[in-house]
Every structure is written in C-alpha cells, then in structure tokens.
Amino acid sequence: MEKTAKRWLVLTVAGAGLLAVFLDSAVNIAFPAISAAFGRGVSSIQWVVVCYMLTSASLLLTCGRLADLFGCQRALLIGLVGSAAAFGLCGVAGTFESFLASRVLQGAAAALVLASAPAVVSANFSPRELGRALGVLNMVGFVGFTSGPILGGLLVEHFGWRAVYLFRVPLSLGTIALAMLLPREEVPRSSDREFDFLGSVALAAGVGLAGVGLALAAVKGLHSSAWKSPQMLGLACGSAASFALLITMERRARYPLLDRRWLAAALVFANASNLLSNLAMFAVWLLVPYYVVNVLRFKVSAGGALLAPCSLGMALSAPFAGALSDRFGARWPQLLGLAVEMLGLLLASQRGLRSSFATVAVPLLLVGLGLGTFAVANMRLVMTSIGRADQGIAAGVVGMMRTLGVVTGASSAAAVFGMRRKVYQAALTSASLTPQALADQSFISAFQDTFLVSTALCLVAVVLAAIPVRYRDVLAAEEPTEAENRTCPVQQP
C-alpha cells in the first residue's frame, strides 16, 4: 500500500473509531425511555453514566500501556471489536443489571479506542504534521459529540431507546472492515519489557472507588449526614489505600506504568490544565438545559439547540488548533484556547432572567471554541513530550485527565449549585415573591455563582499554561529518516 494512502486510511479508521465512542452523547436523550423500560428512577439512571465513564477513566492508562507493548493497531482493532459487541449487548439487554454490565464492557472498549487511536495516528504522521492530524481526529470526535443528541432524539422517537446503541453496530463493523485493510503491524518485542499488572490494578481501583464516591456525593449533597456513612468512608479509605499502594509499587517496579518523566513541569502543568478545563466546562452541560427551559421558558427543542454551539465550536476549532500547533508549537495555542474558554464562562455567568437566545449562544460558542483549541494543542504537547515507544500511555493520560475532569465537574458543579441555591432560597424567603419568582431568582443567582467558580477554575488553568517551563519535543528528536515507515515500536531497554 502506498505510504500516503496508508496514512490517511489510518486516520480514517482512527477517526471512525473515535466517532463511535463520542456518539455516546446520543444516550443522554434516551434516559427517560430507559427509566421507563426498566422501571428505574433518576437516581438509578446515573449508574448508566458512572459504569461507562469510570470504567473508561480507570482503564485508559492500562490500555495505553498495552497498546505500547503489543501494538497500537492491534489495540485499536480489539477496541473496535469490543465496542461493536458492547453496542449490541446494550441494545438487546433484558434486565437493568445486564444493561449496566454491557456499559462496563463498553467503557473498557472505549478506553482501548481512546488510548490507541491518537497513538496510531502519531505512529504514522511525522511530528511536523502531527498537530494537523490530531486536529482532524479530534474534529471527527467532536462532530460525533455534537450530532449525538440530535441523532439520539430522532432514533428514540422513531425506533425506541435501544436504537441509540444498535445504530453504532454497523458503524463499528464497517470500521473493523477498514482496519483489516491496513498492512500488518510490526512490533518489536522485548522479553525484558514487562507489563505493570499490579500497578494497573491499583490505579484502576483508586480511580474507580474515588469516582463512585464522587457520583454518590453528587446525589447525597454537601450537607447530607450520609457523607459520614460507612459506605462513603469505605470508598474514601479504599481509594486512598489504592493510590498509596500504587505509589509504593511504582517506585519498585522495573518498568512502572507511570515513570518519573511524567513529573516534568511541562507535563504536570499540561495535565492539570486539561483536568481543570474540562472540570470548568461541565457547568454548561449540567445547568444550561435547566436554565433555558425552566427559567427562560424556551421550548425543549430550543434548549437542546442551545447546547449545540459549545460542541460545534469544539469541532470547528480543532483543525485550526492543529495547524497552529504545528507552526508555532503547542504552548501558545493552549493558552489562547483556555483564555477564550474562560471568557465564555465569564460571559455565561452574567446571564439573567431575561436573556435572549443569542446572548446565551455566544458565550457557549466561545467555551467550545476555546476548549477545542486547547484540547488539540494539549494532546500534541503531551504526546510529543514522550518517546515514540510510549505514545499509547501518553494518549491514555490525556484521555484520563479529560474524563476525570468531566466526572469531577459533574459532582462539583452540582454541589456548588445546590449549596448556593439553598443560601439564596433562605435569604429570599422574607421577600414578597411568588413561589415561581422565588424559584427563578434563587436558580439564576446560584447559576451565576456556579459559572463564576468555573471561570475561576479556568483562570487557574490559564495561569498554569502561562508558566514558562522547559519543553522538549522528544518525537522530533527521535524522528527517523523515513518518517512514513514508522509503526508503533517498543523501546528497547
């Protein structure tokens, strides 16, 4: 196969795999139908998200390391096969328990795709073209994220909730067929290169237990006595013990899952900024639908349309950010993206009881443009800071920071909003307000405070990205003469 054709086929396969993963945004619109089908309440439906997101987050680094050891192409193919199976099993699940088990499988398969797709692109594009390739890859994912709710609504309306899973089975099978056309991947093996199994288990346990605790915290609230229950204390202690065990084992492991290179200032700041930017953004997805429907009294369809500018902005800015990163390096596009996201969050915090469609859409578009610009530049910076033998785990770290930011953002935004609304409700009870006016005023005040907190978090990310630290492009230093002949090699010890 011609080298140029192979590169673009690789990008097509990786993009299609990422598209199927990001199309999971179609599931949210199906939650009411899933609740009715299984006879479950809203509190139970949160586990549909938790089982998927936490499995993916806890396994991303493990899947990245497996891709490095056994080949990123192979890992991507296994992830695609697992995704197709999980979509089918979710779509035919007869009980809520089997449905959740299928979501766990879907999360594991998604972790393989999320870790190996950027790695296989990095393996086939030179460092001077990597930003553009990653920009296209992220654009495809963001397009899936944008179109998911629209497709999901149509599918649920005409075919039922199971269709939001089953429609991705043919997409995954077609992507598998394309992946089979790729030339066989040659992966040098080293008997001395070991998989850090115990470290992977400890990391997955620490992230999983912490995530379950955060999910329960979002439901129980900040002032609930349930925080002191044996269940919550057990989760906290289990997570802390797992991370302590991870640190101990990583110091002793011959080939640790995470080595000292990740403590370099450039990577620490980049990963912290990634987590904070996604944490700050989640206030949009949590509160805006309630704001536009319950306070502004827009139709539900208009409320859904107002979420589109954010994800659309992410899709539009991704290719631009990739080209910008290739030309000027990743640091300045990171800073630009975070600054634009922060501006959007600040403008959103000024929305009131009488905002128009446009004055809500513009801040959300800015948030999306900023986050899309940052995401691509951040991924390029992290992946070029790590050697070619570890591109899978580099992509896994990027994905894990993003996922943990989303999970933490859901809990923190809900907690801040709930706490501040109770304060305003208590303060306004003495005022001569109708029940509806009291509800609207307390909502908008808490809404504004939550977005101000998100703005402050994004400001911290801006400060971290602006700190002048030493950055070394390891991929460019390792670049061989025949750039297109790269596979996904394993570094010899």
Number of domains: 3
Q: Describe the biggest sheet?
A: none
Q: Into which percentage range does the β-strand content fall?
A: under 5%
Q: Give the mean pLDDT.
A: 83
The CATH homologous superfamily of the largest domain corresponds to MFS general substrate transporter like domains
Would you tell me which CATH topology of the largest domain applies?
Growth Hormone, Chain: A
As a percent range, the share of helical residues equals over 70%
How does this structure look, described?
This protein has 3 domains: 1-182, Up-down Bundle (Growth Hormone, Chain: A); 196-254; 263-475, Growth Hormone, Chain: A (Up-down Bundle). The radius of gyration is 22 Å and the shape is globular. It has 17 helices and no strands. It has 493 residues and is mainly α. It has helices at residues 3-22, 31-38, 42-70, 72-92, 96-124, 127-159, 163-166, 168-179, 197-220, 230-252, 265-295, 300-328, 331-348, 357-384, 391-428, 435-466, 474-478.
